[in-house]
Design a protein that fits this description.
Elements lengths: L3 E2 L2 E2 L2 H8 L8 H21 L7 H12 L7 H10 L5 E2 L2 E9 L7 H17 L4 H8 L10 E6 L5 H7 L12 E3 L2 E11 L2 E2 L2 H31 L2 E2 L13
Helix pairs in contact: 1-2, 2-3, 4-8
Catalytic activity: [protein]-peptidylproline (omega=180) = [protein]-peptidylproline (omega=0)
EC number: 5.2.1.8
Pfam families: Rotamase (PF00639)
C-alpha cells in the first residue's frame, strides 16, 4: 500500500487483520489503515521511552499511564457541573405528552412525508387547538384515535431523541420543528409536567467526578496523540482528524 511509519513499511496483512474490527464504519479500509498506523506510532514511542510491557496492548496502556496524566476533578468542578445540568439529576420526572406520527413507508417517501408533516405543523402553530383533530386524521400511531395522547412518560421511557426533545419543552409547548426517529417524523407537544425528586449532590458526586475525569483524560489523550503523529515520519497516509477506538 506504500505506507510507512518512521521508515518501517506497513504491510497489507496488518491492515487486512484490522479491517474486520471496522465493518460498521463508513469507510472500513481508511479506519483500519489509520488504526494500524496510529498503533505503530504509539509502539515506537513506547520503545523510545524504554517501556517493555508484555503485549502490544500492554505497552500502549503503560505508555498512556506514564504520559497522559490529568488532575482529579475537584469538588468545585463537580458542583458547577451538577448545578449547570440540574435537569439530569432528578428522579421520577413525568411529562404528559401527545404526538402525531408520520411513518415512513415504501408508498410514502420521506420527502413527500416531510412536506405533509411540515404543513400540518404549520397549521398547528396557527391553530394549536386542532391538535386532536389532526392527530386523528393524520397520525400513523394508535394514539391518533385519542388525540395523539401518549399519557405520562418518564425520562428514558422513549427513544433518546424523543425523550431529549420532550423534556426540554414547557407544559403546553408545541415543538417548533419535526422530530425524526426510527419510527418516522413526529410533531410533539408537551402537556403537563410532574416534577420528581432532586437527587442530592452527595449521591451523584462520584458519578460526576468520574465523567469529568474521563472527559479530561480524553482531551489530554487527543492532544498527546496529535503531538506524536506530528512528530512521526508517516508516508502514504494523512492522519489529520483520524479517530481511533484507542481513545474512546
Amino acid at each position: 500500500m506504500g505506507i510507512a511509519v518512521n521508515g518501517v513499511d506497513i504491510n497489507d496483512s496488518a491492515v487486512e487483520a484490522e479491517i474486520a474490527h471496522h465493518q460498521q464504519a463508513g469507510n472500513p479500509l481508511r479506519d483500519a489503515v489509520h488504526e494500524v498506523v496510529l498503533r505503530r506510532v504509539l509502539l515506537d514511542e513506547a520503545a523510545r521511552l524504554g517501556i517493555a510491557a508484555g503485549t502490544d496492548d500492554d505497552r500502549i496502556e503503560a505508555l498512556f499511564a506514564r504520559e497522559v496524566v490529568v488532575p482529579q476533578a475537584d469538588d468545585d468542578a463537580c458542583l458547577r457541573y451538577y448545578l449547570g445540568q440540574a435537569a439530569r439529576f432528578r428522579s421520577g420526572d413525568l411529562m404528559e405528552a401527545r404526538h402525531i406520527l408520520f411513518q415512513v413507508t415504501p408508498s410514502a417517501p420521506l420527502e413527500l412525508l416531510r412536506q405533509t408533516a411540515e404543513s400540518i405543523l404549520a397549521a398547528l402553530q396557527a391553530q394549536p387547538e386542532r391538535f386532536a383533530e389532526l392527530a386523528a386524521q393524520y397520525s400513523n400511531c394508535l394514539s391518533g384515535a385519542i388525540g395523539g395522547s401518549l399519557g405520562q412518560l418518564a425520562r428514558g421511557q422513549c427513544v433518546p431523541e424523543f425523550d431529549e426533545l420532550l423534556f426540554r419543552l414547557q407544559p403546553g409547548e408545541l415543538s417548533g420543528r419535526l422530530l425524526e426517529t426510527r419510527f418516522g417524523l413526529h410533531i410533539v407537544q408537551a402537556q403537563r409536567r410532574v416534577d420528581g425528586d432532586v437527587i442530592p449532590f452527595a449521591t451523584v458526586k462520584p458519578q460526576i467526578a468520574d465523567a469529568l475525569q474521563r472527559q479530561s483524560w480524553q482531551r489530554a489523550l487527543h492532544q498527546y496523540l496529535h503531538i506524536l503523529v506530528g512528530r512521526a515520519e508517516i508516508e502514504g497516509v494523512e492522519l489529520e482528524g483520524a479517530q481511533s477506538p484507542l481513545v474512546q
